[in-house]
User: Fold this.
Amino acid sequence: INIIKENKRIFDLYNTALKNFQFALKKSKENKNIKMQIKLLLNIAHCYSRIQALELAYATYLSALELAEKFKFSTLKLNCYYRIANFMRHSGSRIVTTYITSANDYFNKAVSLIESNPFMFSKNINRITSIFDYYIDHLLMQKRFRSVILINEKKYQITKALLIHITNPVFSNSIDTELYKDYSRNNVLKIKLEENIEKLRAQNIPED
Assistant:
């Protein structure tokens, strides 16, 4: 009886949260706040998954991803790939027969996006580590040990580069220090440029 009561309590909590997120989504559409819409869709999808409305959860995750890809929001795209991969990994078997392949595809997309510009995600290093760790666990379940080694090497290389970028090291050779500073400045400029472009996309303003 206590378990039933606890399950009902959890269901009611997520159902209430779901209604609140849906109301906020309606307002964000009225305000044409695309980034907020994507974040709310991800929260709505999570609520659907927790109350076992799995098909609605999957459809909502895909809606969030569609917007993130349309407006090319890198951080939100990464979040969508990661969320959908984990959703397919844990609940996909109840929706599609190809859930393992689907999870692999979304994890691959997440890793490819990180590799394309790791420094874009330097503020989300914990999320990046989690993506690699979950992907490695998923590959281990499939006994794909060569792929595990490859992904683990990528994780090491990228997290090492990000940690160096964050700590902003000083080298014993002043020339090396200046070269690194130039390299770091260029990365910062690229990140700011991408952020400005994303703002224009969010407002539906042409990038040219």
The chain has a mean pLDDT of 86. The chain is about 80% helix and 0% strand. The helical segments are 2-30, 34-50, 54-70, 74-91, 99-116, 125-141, 145-167, 174-202.
